[in-house]
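Sequence in, structure out. Go.
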Amino acid sequence: MTGPQLPNLFKVPELKEKLLFTFLCLLIYRIGAHIATPGVNVQAMADYMRNAGQGTLFSLYDLFAGGGFGRATVFALGIMPYISASIVFQLAGPVFPIIEKMQRDEEGRKKLTQWTRYLTVVLCLFQAYGYALFTETQIPGAVATPGLAFRLTTVLTLTTGGIFIMWLGEQITERGIGNGASLLIFFSIVERIWPETLRTIEALQTTGSDLTISKLLVVLAVMVLVVAGTVAVTVAARRIPIQIPRKVMGRGRIREGQKTFIPLRINSSGVMPIIFAQSIIIVPGTLAQFSNVQWLKDFSSYFNYTSPAYLFTMAVLIVFFAYFYTSIIFNPVDLAENLKKQGGFIPGVKPGAATADYIDAVLSRITLPGALFLTVVAILPIVVSNMLNMPFGFGGTALLIVVGVALDTVQQVQQHLLLRNYDGFMKEGRVKFRGRQQ
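Output:
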């Protein structure tokens, strides 16, 4: 967004209303993320997450919940149940033809949205009960009066909070700016910047601390490089040229031929490969905490957050899920069929199956550098933290989400500003041609 456009944000009435509505919803979300669940010792939960909870599934969940999971708030489940339900139906499309057909139809998409809400409620119920059971049995002193009453109260509170967050995200998407679910996660991560900054300053001022000014400058330089690389790769795309020939529409109407392109993003899968990889690789450590089996504890020790086995497995899983998720969300066959129906073609490539094969080959080639970039973004903060012997407050997942959501939101704001300028231009009704006003 350029400088001259910034003062115009609140001059456009419609855009002003959308921005204020979005800010109000986000404010409500952050207030609710600080209201504690009844019957839970917040300090005991915070101590557990700070010590034993690191490197487990709970730390990953706490990242997307904006710390609400570790603080045992009424919004402890966050937006993740809704996102999980959405991913389930997204991945079910290629497996079940009836769902794939519904995804292409307007009425079908509405029905899938309703099913997603129902599944979100079910996931909230199960996760809320698991949360209650976890705090009651695994964290000493976290629950003052354990029992059935506490579990029912926690399930009711957290399920209601999860459903309310789902509704809040949908309202932002419908009446605000940007994708509601993504913005909720975005602000949950951004909120951690100030506490992490204070913790870094305290460590810098502590006598005998390993953190020095030179190490801090190295970390800041790494963060700048990662953010710059993330922006570049997020907007980078391979443009496949498309030729649409001239066509007679009937009754004297002629559709002029045109040249356009299909933009294939280098990182089509976004942050999902990292999330999938982290969700799998931290399972052994999470299971070891709930089990007394010695071999499981020994096995999980090999997948310590800083171990070479963890980093290697993480890299392999990210590359695998980058190809897997891209194949799920992008179908070259459907794209080739749509081009054929419109009469379009790729110069030098036959329509139909040959076009699908060509697009698939291009997509496979550009997915590899995107997957390698995701691997570097996910692993580089860990490597730097190990080498400098200091904590790195923001991992690759957080940085990718923040940059991706920010770029998408800024793009939507720019579209509103451009649309406003275009409407004003059309209302004036006077255009100069060759020195004359028409």
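Check: The domain at 1-192 is CATH 1.10.3370.10 (Preprotein translocase SecY subunit). The chain has two domains: 1-192, 209-393.
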